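User: Let's play a game. I give you a shape written as tokens, and you guess the letters that built it. Ready? Here's round one.
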């Protein structure tokens, strides 16, 4: 490859092909998917079109090779074998190039249900690979219906523990069944988490202009009373109502930085850059934009995209340390800023941030909202929390009145990190809130091969 082409890639003047991103992973000795998963993830999170897969041509030898490889991978997926993130990436990538692929309906259903379950219990790169794989399946001409049915069916189960992301995933498809399922969940939601997921999924659907007039009316009838109400759904409902009633689509942009936000971004960015040897001065502005998006963008998906982008760079640990310093100075104040920083650390943090989250969960005098976010953050900061900490923390929380959402967070984090003893403790104790007992049961009932696969 000519050096001038590489320079144009690295300057952002020309879109980098995916194969080049994959080669960067190899040259830099990075784990498979560290860069390509982010490259695949960003278009869906930032409302940009995904690159179209090139359909397999008429070359008989190529068709035979692709079909043979798909068959091998399908045998794994439809059994109790371990399936890794790169294998999901490969399988759905091959199927995306093969729009006329014929598979028995049961095979599509088995593949979609397993992929959805693995996506819901995976984290980090493993989650990103499965999220994009599910998006490819949604948009497959013959396999898409099975993926939509898997999400819509799971969304109707009140005991399902990953309801928000299950419903929100439907927003990746323009199929009429997917849109109908989202509208149905707004009009008659399974629970508050399903409603939150439906609003998130519809944000994508509305942006692409796919709602019919009758569906727009149904959604507005539910969301207009919530907009401006000051409750949990106020901000998301207000935004979606604005999009639905605007003459042309409204794209949310980052909030223009005021002096206070600019100072925070400059402080965090400066601390991170100071820990990296010889950064290019041009990186400062790019890093600052990403940090501002991570902390202050009004669109949760854009915040998530910024967090995954930053986590794939050498600035991950320095940024985590800088944000940890911000968090330590804000815990005594209002919950708003501390929860923002904790949420930002989910994709960036490691062992030091895990220890801090543990202290927040057990500390006295910390606002419940901060504790709740810390309880959920434990899932994404590592798997090194000791069984003794889990046992004593759950016992401590059960001994006094505690916010139900904190227990939900503890059950979620115990499930993601494989703390079976903690889940059994939550399920067995009669003082555990019913929702958390159901969550513990759900996690404990997941097949071992699913849980093992999500860490590969």
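Assistant: Ready! My guess for every position:
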């Amino acid at each position: 490859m000519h050096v001038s082409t590489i320079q144009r890639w690295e300057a952002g003047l020309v879109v980098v092909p995916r194969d080049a991103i994959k080669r960067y992973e190899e040259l830099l000795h990075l784990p498979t998917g560290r860069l390509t998963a982010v490259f695949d993830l960003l278009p869906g999170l930032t409302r940009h079109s995904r690159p179209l897969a090139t359909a397999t041509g008429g070359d008989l030898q190529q068709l035979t090779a692709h079909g043979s490889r798909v068959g091998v991978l399908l045998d794994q997926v439809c059994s109790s074998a371990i399936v890794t993130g790169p294998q999901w990436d490969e399988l759905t990538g091959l199927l995306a190039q093969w729009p006329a692929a014929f598979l028995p309906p049961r095979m599509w259903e088995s593949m979609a249900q397993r992929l959805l379950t693995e996506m819901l219990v995976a984290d980090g790169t493993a989650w990103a690979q499965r999220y994009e794989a599910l998006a490819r399946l949604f948009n497959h001409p013959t396999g898409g219906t099975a993926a939509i049915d898997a999400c819509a069916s799971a969304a109707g189960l009140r005991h399902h523990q990953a309801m928000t992301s299950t419903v929100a995933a439907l927003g990746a498809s323009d199929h009429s069944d997917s849109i109908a399922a989202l509208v149905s969940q707004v009009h008659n939601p399974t629970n508050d988490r399903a409603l939150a997921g439906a609003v998130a999924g519809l944000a994508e659907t509305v942006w692409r202009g796919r709602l019919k007039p009758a569906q727009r009316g149904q959604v507005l009838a539910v969301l207009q009373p919530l907009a401006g109400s000051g409750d949990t759904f106020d901000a998301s409902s207000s935004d979606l109502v604005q999009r639905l009633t605007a003459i042309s689509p409204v794209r949310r942009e980052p909030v223009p930085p005021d002096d206070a936000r600019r100072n925070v971004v400059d402080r965090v960015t400066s601390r991170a850059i100071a820990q990296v040897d010889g950064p290019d001065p041009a990186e400062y502005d790019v890093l600052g934009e990403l940090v501002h998006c991570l902390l202050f963008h009004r669109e949760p998906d854009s915040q998530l995209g910024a967090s995954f982008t930053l986590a794939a760079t050498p600035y991950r640990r320095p940024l985590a340390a800088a944000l940890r310093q911000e968090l330590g100075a804000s815990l005594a104040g209002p919950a708003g800023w501390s929860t923002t920083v904790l949420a930002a650390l989910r994709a960036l943090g490691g062992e030091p941030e895990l220890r801090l989250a543990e202290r927040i969960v057990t500390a006295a005098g910390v606002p419940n909202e901060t504790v709740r976010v810390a309880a959920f953050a434990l899932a994404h900061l590592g798997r090194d929390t000791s069984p003794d900490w889990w046992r004593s923390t759950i016992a401590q929380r059960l001994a006094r009145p505690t916010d139900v959402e904190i227990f939900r967070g503890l059950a979620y984090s115990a499930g993601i990190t494989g703390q079976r003893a903690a889940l059994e403790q939550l399920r067995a104790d009669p003082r555990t809130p019913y929702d958390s007992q159901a969550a513990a049961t759900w996690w404990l009932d997941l097949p071992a091969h699913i849980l093992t696969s999500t860490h590969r």
